[in-house]
Amino acid sequence: MSDIQVKALAAMVKAPVDVLMRQLKRAGIEVSSPEDKITDAQKLMLLERIKNEASSGRTETVDNRNAGAGKITLKRATPGGAGGNDRKPQGVEVRRKKTIGLRNSESDAQADRAAEQRAETLARQAENDRRVREAVLEKAERERRELELQRIRRQKEAKEAVAQPPQPPQPPVMPEIITPVEPVAKTPVVPEVITPVEPVMPSVAAVEPELVAEPPAVERVVTPAPIKAEATEPDTAATATKETTNVSGLEQRQLVVDAARQEASDALKRRPSRAKPKQSLAPKQVIGLEEEEPVINPLPGLVSTDDDDTKRGEKKKIKTRGRENERGNTPVIQHKGNKRKPGRAPEREVKHGFEKPTAPVIREIEIPSTIIVSDLAQKLAIRATDIIKSMMKMGMMVTINQSIDQETAILVAEELGHKATPMQVMDDEAILASVLGDNSDVALETRPPVVTIMGHVDHGKTSLLDYIRKTRVASGEAGGITQHIGAYHVDTSRGTVTFLDTPGHAAFTKMRARGAQVTDIVVLIVAADDGVMPQTKEAIQHAKEAKVPMVVAINKIDKSQADVDRVLNDLSQVGVLTEEWGGDVPVVRVSAKTGVGIDELLETILLVAEVQELTAPVDVPAKGTVIEASIERGRGAVATVLIREGTLRKGDILLCGTQYGRVRALFDENGRSVKEAGPSIPVAVVGLSSAPEAGDEAFVVSDERKVREIAELRQEKQRDSRFAAQNTAKLDNLFSQMQTGARAQINLLVKADVQGSVEAIRSELLKLSTDEVEVRIISSGIGGMNESDIDLAAASKAIVVAFNVRADAGARRLAQDNDVEIRYYSIIYDVINDVRAAMSGMLSPETREVFLGLAEVRNVFRASGFGQVAGCLVVEGVVRRGNPIRVLRDNVVIFEGELESLRRHRDDVKEVQVGTECGIAVKDYNDVRVGDQIEVFEHVQVARSI
User: Fold this and answer.
1) Do residues 715 and 816 both lie within one domain?
2) In CATH, what number is assigned to the domain containing residue 896?
3) DSSP secondary structure code for residue 596 in this structure
4) Is the domain of 213 the same as that of 124?
5) What are the distances in angstroms from CA 195 to CA 189, 211, 261, 404, 877?
6) What is the DSSP letter of 376?
7) How many CA within 13 A on the CB side of residue 750?
8) Does residue 633 lie in a domain region?
9) CA-CA distance, 588 to 604, in Å (whole number)?
10) How far apart are CA 521 and CA 548, in angstroms?
11) What value does the mean pLDDT take over residues 89-111?
12) 3-state class of 785 per DSSP?
């Protein structure tokens, strides 16, 4: 319903405009003219105000028509019904009237007139209020009466069908009788005691007039029912003449009541279930009538008050055949054919309050980056099988626990008739930026340079660094090669320099890339006797991508095979132009064994650093990069962090990728405990929740709650991406196996000492996979092996690869019981070679054809038992019996079969050497001709290797 003007609403409810405006103002609705509009909410406020006034006792109707006679008449009409089971229902209305005489004292005449005026004002106001209230009920009452008449007609037809005895004549309906009240002496006005009736149904009962307490001497009259009434008494003419003076008011009230009740009836008709049995709205007995009238059933949900029940009297108990209703004392009459007795109200039907929605429910959901099928079904409130069927129709095979991407989930939801939108993902970087703040206004100080040593394996990187640090690290490393990235800072007479030693093996590509990203200067080590090698080229590429300056150090110049010119030539071919060749890359000739050129190298490094003007803030929260991470016994997770700016102290809350924690201890590269670490200083941090990934950014944050939130958000993203990758791999494996059959697999569980080694071993082993044998890394991690690792390996039938770690006693005992193989390694070469050999053993052998000999047919004859026999001369190799052969004619294969018989001088022989004549019988072939050649070969299986 839209907004409506005040005057239109007044015309609708048949009430004066000024009265309606006054009602609106009392309800708190400001209107200035009849043309103002009011909304639906304001209408509800008006109706609530009217209901409140009705409950407070302001529904009295003051009749002041007899004001000239000094009387005040209070009237109240109560719709109801009367009748019995054998009577036709008749609508009646009980009207109560009380006349109170005014005081006859001359001294109180003025007060009486004022009281009469107030009574008239209250009467008019109450009448107008009643019109507004009862306009809501008029429509519902009209429809109710129509339904009641239809029910009465059906009952009447049913009674006539069962041949009921004739009904007694219906008593006439008395018109409204208003008895004039004689003037009496003026007495004090006795206030009426108003007893409000508790409303049962707000839409109908709340607007019913209140019951007014009256003395016993009350005259009750009967109003006309919807059916036509007949006047039976001749003495009512005078009364009817008097009634016509008030007909317009009564009709107007009746129209208002009918309109309101019509709306309630429309609401009743919209209900899907059958209407409940109706109860009487009025007393069943009317004073002044000798016979009972039929009862009119009210709207569902309305009940009568105890006072009305008392006035109605007791019902007559119906005689039954001894059977009572199981739910109460209401008797149940049995009839033949299980038919209900005509005229009886239908039994109450108990129905569930829930109604099935007629329209499909459209849900609006948000989809994260990845979602499991079962979770999507739960969001849509449907079965998971429906989603699986829909995706099968779209050409996708999924399971209930499979993860699908965001776009696919949105398409599926729209296919099912729902609305799906991408979920707004919280940005951990934005949260971190808001927590860290801006440190641009902090004073900058000069910091030491970070130098990364890069080059090919065995070119002397670690030995050169050992000479600078005066240590012997290279001699203690397994195989004499570096397999970890090391961070050291060296205090020289010219300043402090931080060195990062990177592995040179091909497996440690990511380590070298990380070293190039965090460095300020790259020192490229090239052996003078070896030249530029593959890892040398890779190091050059990393330096160019990181856009950092480079210094070339030609090592091993003390060897006799040293050729510096060849090294410079090779460098120019890969895009490195040295200063000697007209470029800008400085070159220093050094020897890590004798120490030649070491001082010159340090001077060159510090000169390049001075040109770069390296600065960083000091008195700010620390920021850095995780160089390496491991798990140590007694310490837990240990991360080597290179500080880029700020100062890291004990007690700081450190966030490293997906891990966080409070710094419990700090150690330098020599294992000594330190209290703080400044810019460009590497330090080992103890106190993180777990080992972070190498290459993660490290930040010091003061808000621990924000740190936990960011870490959990990153872990959730990492878990979702890993789960999605696993599902994708499973689908790829499924389709590939369906096409090419099952592929052999070798399952491995990798444990290493540091995160970088795990990363390198994983990448190298996964590269070994072929179309026939697949390498699967079941799990990988850092630290020693425990019983959980052995249980996982036993369940997945995997081989445990332990790189620089050992298993504890419980794990060794469990591995022995479950036949789990544990292989210990300290050199990455050995890991790769052993896995490659194991994969080669899983390859199916290759069948090859080996040529044995060739015989030329010289003559053809027939022999009993063999058929056609070819007399041949072995011209090449050897001819063996039972081997497969080919018959060649003009160097074209015309038959391929098996050699059935081989004879020499009528003796069976196993083989015939070259230059010897023999007789050959070919199985299932009789078309050998002179000049043909018989080629003999065999099939040999050869093991393959990767």
Assistant:
1) no
2) 2.40.30.10
3) T
4) yes
5) 19, 6, 24, 69, 132
6) H
7) 25
8) yes
9) 8
10) 6
11) 55
12) strand
For residue 333, the surrounding DSSP H or E stretch is none
The secondary structure element, H or E, covering residue 835 is helix 828-842
Residue 580 domain boundaries: 448-613
Select from 821, 842, 863 the last residue of a domain.
Answer: 842
Q: Are residues 261 and 194 in the same domain?
A: yes
Would you say residue 26 lies in a domain? no
pLDDT in tens, 328-348: 444 444 444 444 545 555 555
Residue 890 and residue 789 share a domain: no
Question: Could you tell me the CATH number of the domain that includes residue 514?
Answer: 3.40.50.300
Residue with tokens 């020599």: 670
With contact defined as beta carbons under 8 Å apart, do 524 and 451 qualify? no
Backbone angles phi, psi at 492, to 5 degrees: -110, 175
CB atoms within 10 A of CB 216: 4
Task: Compare 722 and 480 and report the one with higher pLDDT.
Answer: 722
* Residue 275: closest CA among 156, 91, 151, 92: 151
Task: Name the binding residues for GTP.
Answer: 455-462, 501-505, 555-558
Total Cβ atoms within 10 A of residue 381 = 10
Residues 788 and 703 in one domain: no
Is the residue at 9 inside a domain? no
Q: Tell me: the pLDDT tens digits for 723-777? A: 666 655 555 555 555 555 567 888 999 999 888 888 888 888 888 888 888 888 8
Please report which residue ranges of 505-597 form alpha helices under DSSP H.
509-518, 534-546, 564-573
| Domain assignment of residue 113, yes or no | yes
Q: What is the pTM of this model?
A: 0.48
Residues 768 and 852 in one domain: no
CB 650 within 8 A of CB 664: yes
Q: Which residues pair with 938 in a beta bridge?
A: 850
Domain tally for the chain? Answer: 6
Does 891 share its domain with 803? no
Q: Do 21 and 6 contact (CB within 8 A), yes or no?
A: yes
pLDDT of residue 178: 42
Distance CA 859, CA 861 (A): 7
Looking at beta carbons, which pairs linking 897-902 to residues 24 or more positions away fall under 8 Å? 897/922, 897/923, 897/924, 897/925, 898/922, 898/923, 899/923, 899/934, 899/936, 900/866, 901/866, 901/869
Look at 125-134, 215-224, 397-406, 711-720 and tell me which has the smallest mean pLDDT: 215-224
Among 824, 842, 860, the domain-final residue is 842
Most confident of 163-167, 194-198, 305-309, 599-603: 599-603
Structure tokens of 812? Answer: 């060794």
**Residue 630, strand partner residues:** 638, 754
925 and 793 in a common domain: no
Task: Give the pair of three-digit tokens for residue 74.
Answer: 């209070």
Give the DSSP H/E element, type plus range, for residue 2: none
| 845 exposure class (CB count in 10 Å sphere: 0-12, 13-18, 19+) | exposed
Give residue 66's pLDDT: 40
Strand residue runs (E) in 331-483? 364-367, 370-372, 403-405, 419-422, 444-446, 450-455
Sign of CA dihedral 658, 663, 669, 671: negative
Could you tell me which residues are annotated as the binding site? 455-462, 501-505, 555-558
